Amino acid sequence: MMRIKSWILWGVTALSFFFSVHAYAVLDIQLTDGISRAVPIAVVPFEHESFINDATRQLSKVISHDLAISGQFRLLPMANVSQNPFTAAAVDYQFWRQQKVDDVIVGQIKQVSFDRYQVTVGLVDLYRGALSPTKTLLDEQFTVSKNELRGLAHHISDLIYEKLTGERGIFSTRLAYVLVTKGIDGKKQYSLQVSDMDGYNAKSIMVSPQPIMSPAWSPDGKKIAYVTFETKLPEIYVSNVMTGERRKVTSFPGINGAPAWSPDGSKLAVALSFTQGNPNIYVIDLASAKLSQITRDGAINTEPAWAPDGRSLVFTSDRGGNPQIYRVNLATLQTSRVTFDGNYNASASFLPDAKNIVLLHRGDTRFNIAVLDLGSGVVTEITKAGRDDSPAVAPNGKMVAYATQYGGNGVLAMVSTDGNVKLRLPDVQGIVQEPAWSPYTAG
Q1: Domain around 124
Q2: 17-21, 326-330, 357-361: which has the minimum mean pLDDT?
Q3: d(CA 65, CA 47)
Q4: CA 315 to CA 317: how far, in whole Å?
Q5: What is the DSSP string of 155-182?
Q6: 245-251 contacts: CB < 8 A, separation 24 or more?
Q7: CA quadruple 108, 68, 168, 360: dihedral sign
Q8: Residue 293: in which H helix or E strand, if any?
Q9: Residue 233 maps to which CATH number?
Q10: How many distinct structural domains can be found in the chain?
Q11: Which of 168, 316, 324, 370 is most buried as measured by Cβ atoms within 10 A of its Cβ?
Q12: Same domain, 394 and 261
């Protein structure tokens, strides 16, 4: 695994904008564990959506898939259901209560011009209380092109999820990750991929015969910072996801790695080794290129991650003898150790509440994803496979994407931060690693 090869370069480790769409990059999310008390709901096939031959764009199927993989909902099988309402007004409350569901999603699709479609969607709560007599929680209409139907389905899923849970949905967000394949000559090829949150619409934004590592989304979702070895030496680039334009940020002698965006997008925290030979943490101002050194010791210091308020960083260091997480105040440079449980802690990032961090944790000999409560110091493992890597937190703080092993292959998986919901994203035609989860604003 990458951590065994070199944990120094783990995180250290010719742009072709949307170079190709690989069939093998379409990941089929499989729910492997969900919450025991999932809310029962029904997603009725939308009126007139059968004319859309591509099932990945049929709204009811995409919405059903989204809600199912959240682990929060139990979907009613629709094959033998005799009623098929298309509007909220047509929902027969008594019938659907007999199906033992709490909520019903209905919709219609109408073609209004050559490539424009009008979509109407409704969400009906069958058991809304007397204090809230309006049972239609959602009644919206959208007009989009055919190519935008799948994105609209994710948006609708977000709306439904928020209405029913009170939490913002993440179905319209995206993943970046590194895909490693072998060419016909047997040599490895590395590609930086961007896909929908569910793995569909995967596109390569950079392909290289040399390693690509540490992708990181900018806070506005428009750029990705990453490490490339295309010159045989590590360099940090920032690429614009939409235009393909890219910019070299660092190319110092030695290690250039582990880029992490500041919350306001104006700076990158990075790991550089050009001054002392060992990597230390620096902050580079992207407008002025001014470099500020944050750590100054002989240890290995890498994998910086910003606190939500931008006032401090957590990072991985072996200054105590083995990799542990430390926190540095950027105003005073005062540093304190954060992790004490386990003989290896690395790859930390904050949850949005700033009270917890997600990290890679080894308590004995097994590497699992864990959550550390910064107040109590309690570490809770949320995966149990023992061969996990590279945790990346969703923008709502409810899910974590990570790299793992399944069937002898490197795949991506997801787990809820309470450990109750687990998903697997298999890809049998390549090794998938180092996920990065986009912010809400990725467009």
Answers
A1: 36-165
A2: 17-21
A3: 18
A4: 7
A5: HHHHHHHHHHHSS---TT-EEEEEEEEE
A6: 246/15, 249/225, 249/284, 249/286, 250/284
A7: negative
A8: strand 291-293
A9: 2.120.10.30
A10: 2
A11: 316
A12: yes
